[in-house]
Design brief:
Layout lengths: L3 E2 L11 H4 L5 E3 L25 E5 H8 L1 H4 L6 H22 L5 H15 L3 H18 L11 E5 L11 H4 L11 H18 L4 H25 L7 H4 L2 H9 L1 E2 L11 H15 E3 L7 H14 L7 H22 L1
Antiparallel strand pairs: 1-5, 2-6, 3-4
Length: 334
């Protein structure tokens, strides 16, 4: 299914103190500037023909996976991430030249100096890291199995994960009492309806971008408040953090049909779970299982805040795709 990209697929949110202390790690995979066009055709990631012991992965995520040993050496702030990814790209490109038999000792020395400066390593440690990263590329991405002329790669599964479905009985026990909207909720719904109207009228992305990004933050804040009021005993951000990538999918891309929160054909839920989420969000494999329950809760929230007359049909669509999504996760990470 073809799509034109209408905006950055994700913008990293400013982290509050409690979020920096969380153990859960989510990372939106950034892509190109909004004026570029991204067209994707054909099957989702699980169906691209990765050999046994490998999985399909987009180029941006491939680089993030490759860079993991470097990320372990830094604290993880925005500046650290940018510097780490620059170092990873240098090493990636040089590893490619090594695979092609084009080693260059001068470039190697320059990279070693960059590694020593970026990560505070002595010469011996820098050399060891350099050798590890050069070998890592061919280990993770063996050249002879890579698909030709594809924006995707096949990456070796370094670890096999046991994927378990979300345990609703243990992890969710919320009140059934409806919480009517307060003034902030009403203002949020008004903004969503305004955004929906612009989408339905075929407005250009630039016309509603200023409305869309603050709306994402407000959705998350009000949803978190609702979860707490409903009696959620877990960290509400385990669920509210799932909204940003979903809202990007709904409102940040041009679909073949008009898609708004209250009107999503079931085929788009399949596309979101089997492809878009896995390409655009890096998370621990077992954390992906939070997305279906999070979205079902979000639609209950939208119903109680009077955006939706009933959430039942949409929740049923998510229920239908959830077992398939678990099988996708098993195929990708198991």
């Amino acid at each position: 299914m073809a799509k034109k990209k209408k905006g950055e697929t994700a913008k990293r949110r400013a982290k509050s103190k409690h979020k920096t202390q969380k153990k859960r790690k989510l990372r939106l995979v950034k892509s190109r500037a909004k004026q570029d066009i991204q067209i994707s055709h054909g099957p989702g990631l699980p169906h691209l023909g990765a050999p046994e012991g490998f999985r399909s992965i987009g180029m941006a995520q491939a680089m993030m996976e490759y860079a993991k040993p470097l990320m372990e050496l830094v604290e993880g702030g925005e500046e650290d991430l940018e510097g780490t990814m620059q170092a990873a790209m240098l090493l990636w490109n040089y590893a490619l030249s090594v695979e092609e038999g084009r080693e260059n000792r001068k470039i190697e020395k320059d990279i070693l100096k960059a590694i020593m400066g970026s990560f505070g390593l002595d010469k011996a440690a820098a050399r060891a890291l350099f050798a590890k990263m050069i070998e890592r590329r061919s280990h993770l991405f063996p050249p002879d199995i890579q698909p030709k002329g594809s924006p995707f790669m096949f990456i070796r599964k370094e670890v096999r994960h046991i994927i378990r479905p979300f345990d609703y009985d243990i992890l969710l026990d919320l009140s059934d009492e409806i919480i009517p909207p307060d003034n902030k909720d009403k203002a949020l719904v008004d903004r969503i309806n305004k955004l929906d109207s612009q989408i339905s009228a075929g407005a250009d992305y630039d016309k509603y971008e200023r409305l869309f990004f603050p709306l994402k933050d407000e959705c998350q804040a009000r949803f978190e408040r609702w979860l707490v009021d409903k009696g959620l005993t877990q960290d509400p951000t385990l669920f509210s953090d799932c909204l940003s990538i979903y809202l990007d999918f709904v409102y940040g891309y041009m679909h073949d049909d008009i898609v708004i929160l209250k009107s999503i054909p079931d085929i788009y839920f399949v596309e979101f779970f089997e492809d878009f989420l896995l390409r655009k969000m890096m998370a621990e494999p077992n954390e992906y299982v939070y997305w279906p329950p999070a979205l079902k809760l979000f639609y209950r929230f939208l119903h109680e805040k009077r955006y939706l007359e009933s959430p039942d049909n949409i929740i049923e669509e998510i229920n239908n795709v959830e077992p398939y999504f678990i099988q996708v996760l098993i195929k990708q990470f198991g």
